[in-house]
């Protein structure tokens, strides 16, 4: 597909939610997320020629964004970012957040415990992709996807339970 | 856990602060492992080109005996040919773009393949170029007239005691092994780790 830079940016802005959600699922740290967002945009731009219009633009964006997140590794040592808020400060902040925001925060926090493939599975499931579509996107068999997805859902529930946040 | 509710919350999340860039110019360079190797390679290209020019200029700046001068030029010519061939190959790699628009498994396999291939080209180029360099460097230092008689010709024609000859061969092999070991170790330390991480992801898919 041939698009000018501005047309491309306009097209991805329409679906910017995909990039936002993928970055939230894959990284907790804001700077890591920012790096991933930039990388996704770069890879979308570089891979634009591979989009032949057979699928929807948004489906192609999902695929590129997820694949980029999977093969992207955050910087191992970045001193200023290694600082984490003390637990009690985080909890205090959570207490003041409204209920919806808190539920989402808990979910994103729990998702960080999953591996990259489990994240891809749960994300596509939440986004409403069928088992067949997930299998096709990941290059796995539908049976394997079904088994892994069930396992991942249980694992996620266990993580949340372990973090004392059942919802 | 109600995943429909999670989906609803994710969709409704406030994204006012989340702005995409208005131009691609301001984006940082790619941080993919393969992009990092290619960036190192670009630096390497510049360094090698500068090196070739500097090494070829040297004999014109100092007075050298004929034989070491000829050997120096021949070895430098071979090294330069190999380096240029390697640089041409690297240029081809640098223009290649990894496609992340395929299936995830295919993408990972292609990434592993591309990183391995790029690393091999890189290592081969460095090792091959480095192995010929000791002879050129020896010709250069031993062949300069102001340092006395032409010791290089004797050395090159192997006019030396057997023990010295064995020591020279041993020293050369040792430096070759050292160059090979350092290059392989260094490349593996920097980039091999990414291959292992990607292979781990493949295992996660199969488990």
Brief overview:
Chain B: Keywords: Membrane, Transmembrane, Transmembrane helix. The complex is a heterodimer of chains A (167) and B (207). Chain A has 167 residues and is mainly alpha-helical.
Element string of chain B (H = helix, E = strand): HHHHHH
The shape of chain A is globular
What's the total helix number of chain A?
9
The count of DSSP E runs of length 2 or more, i.e. the number of strands of chain A, is 0
CATH topology of the largest domain in chain A: Arc Repressor Mutant, subunit A
Question: What Rg of chain B is obtained from the alpha carbons, in whole angstroms?
Answer: 26 Å
* Strand segment tally of chain B: 0
- Work out the count of structural domains of chain B: 1
Regions of chain A with pLDDT < 50 over 5+ consecutive residues? Answer: 79-94
Helix content of chain B: over 70%
Strand content of chain A: under 5%
Could you tell me how far the N terminus lies from the C terminus of chain B, measured between alpha carbons in angstroms?
A: 24 Å
Largest sheet of chain A: none
User: What is the string of helix and strand elements of chain A?
Assistant: HHHHHHHHH
Question: Taking Cα atoms only, what radius of gyration of chain A do you get, to the nearest Å?
Answer: 17 Å
> How much β-strand is present in the residues of chain B?
under 5%
Description:
The complex is a heterodimer of chains A (167) and B (207). Chain A is mainly alpha-helical and 167 residues long. Chain A has helices at residues 5-14, 16-26, 30-46, 57-71, 87-96, 99-111, 116-126, 131-138, 142-162. Chain B has one domain. Helix content of chain B is 77%, strand content 0%. Chain B has six helices and no strands. The model of chain B has no long low-confidence stretch (mean pLDDT 84). Chains A and B meet through helix 1, helix 2, helix 3, helix 4 and helix 6 of A and helix 1, helix 4 and helix 6 of B.
